[in-house]
Amino acid sequence: MELKNIELAIKLFGLEAEEKITLLDGKLLAAAHISPFAPDAPALITGLEGVDLASFNRPLSAVYPQNFSLKIVEKDGQVVQFPLSNLSGKTGLALLIPPLGIGTSFEAFQEIIAHLRAPEDGCPWDKEQTHLSLRKHLLEESYETLSAMDEQDTEKMSEEFGDLLLQIVLNAQIAVDAGEFNMAAILQGIHAKIVRRHPHVFGEVQVAGVGDVLSNWEQIKAGERKKQGQKDKGALDGLPAALPALIQAQEFQDRAARVGFDWPEVTGVLEKINEEIEEVQKAANQDELIDEMGDLFFALVNLARWKKIDAEAALRGASLKFKKRFKYVENRAHELGCSMQNMDIHELDDLWNEAKRALRNG
Question: Which runs of E-coded beta strand occur in 198-272?
Answer without folding.
Answer: none
